[in-house]
Here is the input.
Amino acid sequence: DVKVTQSSRYLVKRTGEKVFLECVQDMDHENMFWYRQDPGLGLRLIYFSYDVKMKEKGDIPEGYSVSREKKERFSLILESASTNQTSMYLCASLGQGNGPNNSPLHFGNGTRLTVT
Amino acid sequence: TQLLEQSPQFLSIQEGENLTVYCNSSSVFSSLQWYRQEPGEGPVLLVTVVTGGEVKKLKRLTFQFGDARKDSSLHITAAQPGDTGLYLCAGALNSGGYQKVTFGTGTKLQVIP
Here is the structure.
């Protein structure tokens, strides 16, 4: 079974702090994604990566950056946290092959970040 | 701008009733998936539809992909309390040799015993 592990379930940070959200997957998946989830907005894609050291902007990349130095790890970075970045953050991985046509995204359990 | 719009946003029904959730977009997707998410957990895949007009059934759940591959629906027959959760559609777009997966706005379903 694929396991996607997010390092923290809950995180409280102050405005202006640099925040790292870590995600590790154990299935050698090429693709990894970071989403944020807010009520009424579903999941919005922040960044994704289809290979080591490769990254692509999603729909809402502003205020975020990412790092993919190793295949199994995909980090989301908030350079200077702001209150509007308070949200649930979900990491997901996806194998290559047939892509989403035949494979599900595998999600972690999320990190609930509060910025005060 | 949300690429995928779901309706309704909230639904509260009695056990045994039927319901339909819609997922609409102006974009054409290579495939569309439906997920269910329970509190404190990540979304879990229910089904993937690939071909325009495709219909898939999963027990009491029926999923349909629109002919033009821009929209989808999820119909639940005789809803049970165990169906309670957040339902999310997700569309896959092939872009530059990789897959970009975009989610809908979500439908929160509550089934009352």
